[in-house]
Amino acid sequence: MYYREWKPKKYLFEGKRGTQYSATSVANIVKRSASRAGILQKVSPHMLRHSFATHLLEDGVDLRYIQQLLGHKTTKTTEIYTHVASHQLKKIKNPLDSLYLDKR
Length: 104
Hints:
By secondary structure, the protein is mostly helical. The protein has two domains: 1-40, no CATH class; 44-90. It has six helices and no strands. The protein has helices at residues 2-6, 23-36, 45-58, 63-70, 75-78, 80-84. The longest helix is centred in the first third of the chain and has 14 residues, at 23-36. The radius of gyration is 20 Å and the shape is elongated. This is Tyrosine recombinase XerD.
């Protein structure tokens, strides 16, 4: 709905004259939105970026794709998200644990 109504030309979210929002403006929008949503925790645009990458990784998206989406030059930078998503590893079940072993 937003895209159809505002028809941005260069940036998805453009300022009044079609210019890029400043980092300060984006941070203020995120903080104001969090406040309106009743989120008491301190929120930043970087947290949204971090959450985006973590959710992609948890959903099985290849690390190289995430690297490109985030604009990282190397996968080393992107690999920090593998540590955040490590709790997902605990949910992986060993297929051998589900085998019925006849105890004779």
